[in-house]
Every structure is written in C-alpha cells, then in structure tokens.
Design brief:
Elements (H helix, E strand, L loop, with lengths): L2 H7 L2 H7 L8 H7 L3 H15 L22 H12 L4 H6 L4 H8 L2 H11 L1
C-alpha cells in the first residue's frame, strides 16, 4: 500500500469529506461508467471505502476504528447511503462495468446490500 495515501486517508478532514453526503454526486456514476478501467476502479474503491466496517482496517491500510475522528455514526452512514441510493443510473452503471470482478466487488458491499434491502421494502 502507498504510505502517502495511507497518511492522507487517515486525516480527519479527509475522512469527513469522504463520508459527507454533500460530496456524493453524479461524478460517482460517471467514474463507474468510464471507459478507462483505472477510473472505474477508483469508483469501485470509493464505494468499498464508504462500505468499510469502522472496526476493521480500511483498504488504504489505516485503522477505521470508531475512536478515530471523521468516521460516521450509524445515523450519518444511513444519510450517506440514502444519498448514494438516489443517484440516477447507479445500478445501470454498476451492471455496465466491463470487469466482472469489479461488478461483483460493488455488488457485495454493505452499501449496495443496504440499498437493495431498502428498495425491496
């Protein structure tokens, strides 16, 4: 893992930006739809990050412990997930991912399972 990324993503201000519902927008769908596989992969990684368990190390190698500042409360996470669920064309963008592994990674995230559960109610 990249130590510079690890330091950056462990900063409280960066965590607050990542987990803020205000930073969620159609840019995420555009990333998933990108022809460039590296760009699409970053969109997948972002969804995985939003879905990461606060009690386990994140994929940047840092701790996501709930004692760390910037980690969302369950209520904040629910708002964040709701914001993502309202993105236009999110599901088609995920289904259109050319790399089946990336599609499976997104489909198996807590975020997507939560969205599906809410839509089936």
């Amino acid at each position: 893992k990249d130590p510079a990324k690890q330091r950056l993503f462990n900063m409280t201000i960066v965590k607050r930006m990542i987990y803020s519902p205000h930073t969620i927008g159609n840019w995420l769908v555009y990333m998933l739809e990108a022809i460039d596989g590296d760009v699409a992969s970053r969109g997948v990684q972002y969804i995985e990050l939003l879905s990461s368990d606060p009690e386990t190390p994140d994929f940047y190698g840092g701790s996501n412990s709930s004692t760390n500042k910037g980690i969302p409360t369950p209520e904040e996470r629910a708002k964040l997930y709701k914001r993502v669920s309202r993105l236009d064309y999110l599901h088609p963008a995920i289904l259109a991912l050319e790399d089946i592994d990336m599609c499976n990674r997104v489909a198996n995230t807590h975020l997507m399972r939560h969205i599906q559960d809410e839509e089936l109610r």
